[in-house]
Design a protein that fits this description.
Ribosomal Protein S8, Chain: A, domain 1, three-stranded antiparallel β-sheet, 2 helices, globular
Length: about 80
C-alpha cells in the first residue's frame, strides 16, 4: 500500500493523478476530500468518470476523520 499527499496540488492535478494511477497501473486508489461543500466528492467522481472512461467507483463513505469523505476507485477490470 502506498500513500501520496496531493494536498498541495490543485484539484485538476489531483484528479489527473488519481485517474492515471488507477487506469495505467490497474490498481484500486482511495482518496479523501473535504465533506464541505457536500458536492466536492461528487465533483471529483464526475471528473474522473469524464476524463477516464471505464473507471469504477467501488465504494464511498464518511471519514476517516470528521469533515471528510473517502472514495475508492478502480479500473474497469478490478471489481471489488
Amino acid at each position: 500500500m502506498n500513500y501520496k499527499d496531493l494536498g498541495d496540488e490543485n484539484e485538476d492535478e489531483r484528479i489527473r493523478q488519481i485517474g492515471e494511477k488507477t487506469m495505467t497501473e490497474k490498481v484500486v486508489v482511495g482518496f479523501v476530500t473535504d465533506a464541505e461543500p457536500p458536492t466536492k466528492a461528487d465533483r471529483y467522481i464526475q471528473e474522473l468518470i469524464e476524463r477516464f472512461p471505464g473507471i469504477q467507483v467501488l465504494a464511498r463513505g464518511n471519514g476517516p476523520i470528521a469533515g471528510t469523505v473517502w472514495v475508492k476507485v478502480g479500473p474497469p477490470e478490478k471489481i471489488q
